[in-house]
Design a protein that fits this description.
It is a single chain. The protein is mostly helical. 83% of the residues lie in helices and 0% in strands. Helix 1 runs antiparallel to helix 3. It is elongated, with a radius of gyration of 15 Å.
Length: 63
């Protein structure tokens, strides 16, 4: 079960890092305008990772 939890965490962290890297590439002023969007996106990633871990633990404990 630890392997699955680590896999979820790794995928979530990689997706966040790749999103953050792409933040300023399309428009030079986009980075300055999008601080609130980045915070919101970070919260979505955090909720998705935590929710995935909770769902996995719940599924593994029932099965």
């Amino acid at each position: 079960m630890i392997v699955y939890i680590m896999l979820i965490l790794i995928i979530g962290i990689i997706s966040f890092v790749l999103t953050y890297r792409e933040l300023g590439r399309s428009d030079p002023n986009y980075r300055e305008k999008s601080r609130s969007h980045l915070k919101f996106l970070s919260m979505i990633y955090l909720v998705a990772i935590i929710g995935s871990v909770i769902a996995l633990v719940t599924y593994m404990s029932v099965a």
